[in-house]
């Protein structure tokens, strides 16, 4: 459950950051559009390459960390059997 909450916070953070940097921060439609695009940005399924390299590096590091935590949960769960 904590991992899903962390994933939700990561996607919400990506959406907020994307709106503040690349769109109008005073338009609610831009927030919803960024929230719609955030999972694709997080999982690397988008072809937008206009992001700052540091921003892209933070997204990749977050993705790899969450994948490592998910793998650790699976190993812990199946090692008891």
Question: Could you explain the architecture of this structure?
Answer:
- The chain is mainly α.
- Helix content is 79%, strand content 0%.
- It has one domain.
- The mean pLDDT is 87.
- The two termini are 21 Å apart.
- Helix 1 crosses helix 2 and helix 1 runs antiparallel to helix 3.
- The protein contains three helices and no strands.
- The radius of gyration is 15 Å and the shape is elongated.
**Biggest beta sheet summary:** none
Summing up helix and strand content along with how strands pair, one would put the structural category as: mainly alpha
What multimeric state do the chains show? single chain
Helix content: over 70%
Total strand count, please? 0
Give the H and E element order.
HHH
Short description:
The chain is 79% helix and 0% strand.
Which descriptors apply to this entry?
mainly alpha, 3 helices, elongated
Task: Give the topology.
Blueprint: H1 2-22, H2 28-43, H3 53-79
């Amino acid at each position: 459950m904590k991992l899903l909450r962390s994933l939700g916070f990561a996607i919400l953070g990506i959406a907020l950051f994307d709106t503040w940097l690349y769109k109008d921060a005073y338009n609610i439609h831009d927030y919803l559009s960024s929230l719609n695009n955030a999972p694709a940005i997080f999982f690397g399924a988008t072809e937008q390459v206009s992001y700052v390299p540091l921003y892209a590096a933070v997204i990749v590091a977050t993705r790899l960390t969450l994948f490592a935590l998910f793998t650790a949960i699976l190993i812990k769960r199946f090692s008891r059997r």
